[in-house]
Amino acid sequence: MLSRSPLIVVGTNSVPAHPEVAYVKGGFSTCEMGGMLPQGTSAIRVSASANTGPRVTLKALSGPLLVTSGHRETGWGVDETVTVPVKRVPRTISDAKICLAFGPVIEELQINGAVVRTTTAGGKTHSAVALRLEYLRPGHESWWSLASSVARHMGLGHAPSGTWVVLILIALMITVAALASLLVLRELR
Question: What is the pTM of this model?
Fold first, then answer.
């Protein structure tokens, strides 16, 4: 796990993520204008949250052509926006359309995004909710390569400050774990 690269945001659909724009029941589907879908995208974060989220199915289209798709099973949630893994996008798509289908739920889903108002040719104004979408792909660094940066930040703000503080803490934890293991083995004999 630590040798993998963390997912980084490489683009959005430019919709601001205003919290609690709407609450909707599950069992619905919608299509959003996704803007530019970057090459290499391997997951799409949708600004919808729930305590126990439903199954989410996602399709990215370029005109009538399917570019990528994926799904996330039931059970995501607890203040988490849903991230749907998708097949890697082979090339950048300029005017992508993202279609989502949410499965049935017991409670309502919280939608974070923006209210979009449109005016028809007849002069009538309609309001719709636009979801914020973020496009993710693996970064260039692994979690291991970030260890020195994390240690440096952990060592700041203490009376004795510095990266060496973290190294001492790691050494102490290894020593305690080794001693505890020896005691357990001795008692088992």
Answer: 0.71
